[in-house]
């Protein structure tokens, strides 16, 4: 006996069973297909008409109220659209939330569309296959509001409390707004495998071709920011050829594993970290093989400097808050400066103490890149710096076969003011003045100076200069001047000199005072094997000379001196005897003969001239 095992009932929607049952009869098969088609059309019609039957306006109002309660801020939804075909979806248009009373501080979404899994809906689960947003406006207030909403929720709690599962999401036309500027548009794509933490996030800046890749690593996030044609979000007037930033974020710190910048024929690499546990601290180690100064400074709108630098810098910022980290900083740099084939070594150490930066700066084999090309063999400075004041406690320069020591201070609180003292030992003047395109004097300079400068702008500092110096110049030559020839009472304007005019000397000393672009040399003394001279010379702002020098010649035993009037300019000086000296010299020559007679006569003429001047002043006073 064959017993039937068919159950007492069956499901009419069991398609496989129906096909086996009705395939034995063609007429029955046609009836079944017709019935199934009618039922499917009815279901599709119901799905198509259902959104029109549902009161979508009531759903929009209810959803707006629920979001307002969740965010504790008024939320507006302009329009809602529900579709069941071809797949279940919900679309919201014009979603906005006011963050405060300011009309511009607003979070907004132009369009939000959620596409659901139909199979999961039939099973009673809410599964969003894709969430799409367009026209999203974000700012710092919106981010802080969202962080405040989820501040007390742990990741495991949020995963359990999430009423839906999200597979992927995307944002098109994402903008970041600040008080001064709007950045964007961006495109964001994210994928989820399980839990609230996305498995991958990609942010693209469509304008600058910047890409940010983010993925979770245990309790941290690994990120890579890369750009081939721009640098966002830093709004700098520079466009880098390549920029890469990679590292880890989490546990109250950001670890910068790689920072790479390439552009303007330069490359900079850096690494470091940013921490904010007890306080805020930023530490960076930067290195460059070649950083061209001219294109970088020009792009930044700064005065250009020639050459390039290479080397390492360690920078640390620390403070109780992010905006106060600059108050405690350390800088340690070891750099090589290359310009026109010359390489200089630069070192800088700086530490913040009592709101002042204590620094030590040294340089070796440095030619100044701005102004006159002064060459410094070695230099070292120690001092302190604030926002408007710099003090040099000690400065040392070795240059032009001599040494310079300097100390002083510079203040730019209201205009520019500086005070300084300096001491110079055996600096050779001729090579120094050649750099300044001057050929006035040569010799080894030793001096002690004190002075001050004050002006509204740096270009006017020399106009407010007050300086006093005692100086000695040894074994040198005064060019464009022949005091020995002038003291011989020769008419220089009528007799051409046989060779270049110059006055060699063993020692030249005196005191220089400068005030408001007026210069005066007092107590000038010149000594050599041929003559001995003394006097005073003044220079006005037009560089015109005035004064008088008395010159005693070797042939007169340096006993009697010839008075000379100083005139002309610093470029073309003239030294001429006074009229009384010329008259007395002529009489002395006739009586005593040339040489000693000439000198004695000139001296008598000078005395007569002085006596006449005294009587003239006396008569004037009477």
UniProtKB/TrEMBL annotation:
Protein name: AsmA family protein
Pfam families membership: AsmA
Keywords noted in UniProt: Membrane, Transmembrane, Transmembrane helix
Top-level taxonomy: Bacteria, Pseudomonadati, Pseudomonadota, Gammaproteobacteria, Thiohalobacterales
Domain of life of the source: Bacteria
GO cellular component entries: plasma membrane
GO BP field: regulation of protein targeting to membrane
Regions crossing the membrane: 31-54
Domain AsmA residue range list: 36-139
Database matches in PANTHER family: DUF748 DOMAIN-CONTAINING PROTEIN
